Amino acid sequence: MPTLKSLTVTATLCAALAGPAIAAQCGNNAGGFGAWKTAFAAEAQRAGVKQRGLDALANARYATDTIKADRNQKSFKYSLDKFMQVRGAPAIVSQGRKRKARNAGFYAALERQYGVPAGVLLAIHGMETGFGGFMGNSAVVSAITTLAYDCRRSGFFTPHAIGALMLVDRGSITGNTKGAKHGELGHTQFLPGNALRYGVDGDGNGRVDLYNQTDAMASTANFLRKKGWRPGADYQQGQPNFNVIKQWNAATVYQQAIAIMAAQIDG
């Protein structure tokens, strides 16, 4: 059952997504970022962001490397075979099988609770960060606010920018927390708004930390379940749960690779 806190977070983010357009003027270079931050601060405050989050926004820098990465996502244009080769699918499957065997009880418990099999979670974990080997070196707040400012997909990234500032308020991240080029964070690379909405305390220590593997795996399973995962249903292309994998990443070649690797991990 959702807690009052989770319902409040969901309502706030939905309001940010569905509300009137942000008054801040988007831009395609660093020139207007400072003025945008000033205007966006007022919008963020109306959405419920507190002083710690506003301070992180004030200190955010225009992330040139993020813009370069956003304009240069070549791997998603590869064929499926090339994509799996480049992303190291055989190694992900091999490591995924070993990790499942070593932690069989943990993954079985996640499947009982959320209905998502180990192979899917491990394929995502391996694909996103090499099982936590590299979780990114870009400042999350700077990256995600740069994308909210950038005109190309401002509407998509704006709620995630607000989510990142709320995570700062909550103490889950700081203005210096490092993640991927698009502001994704943790073992499975949650966008900040999704981290706020779907993150769960998997290890029971009273806080959600997506840089903690247990919390990240439980949160990933929770995300997929909340997006419509049907326990026991298949997940290859054309099967019921493949549509849920689509909710994790919009690139078809990525979705196909996850489904194939997951099946190989699960045997």
Automatic annotation (TrEMBL):
<dbReference type="InterPro" id="IPR031304">
    <property type="entry name" value="SLT_2"/>
</dbReference>
<keyword id="KW-0732">Signal</keyword>
<dbReference type="Pfam" id="PF13406">
    <property type="entry name" value="SLT_2"/>
</dbReference>
<dbReference type="GO" id="GO:0008933">
    <property type="term" value="F:peptidoglycan lytic transglycosylase activity"/>
</dbReference>
<feature type="domain" description="Transglycosylase SLT">
    <location>
        <begin position="33"/>
        <end position="236"/>
    </location>
</feature>
<dbReference type="InterPro" id="IPR023346">
    <property type="entry name" value="Lysozyme-like_dom_sf"/>
</dbReference>
<dbReference type="GO" id="GO:0009253">
    <property type="term" value="P:peptidoglycan catabolic process"/>
</dbReference>
<dbReference type="InterPro" id="IPR043426">
    <property type="entry name" value="MltB-like"/>
</dbReference>
<protein>
    <submittedName>
        <fullName>Lytic murein transglycosylase</fullName>
    </submittedName>
</protein>
<feature type="signal peptide">
    <location>
        <begin position="1"/>
        <end position="23"/>
    </location>
</feature>
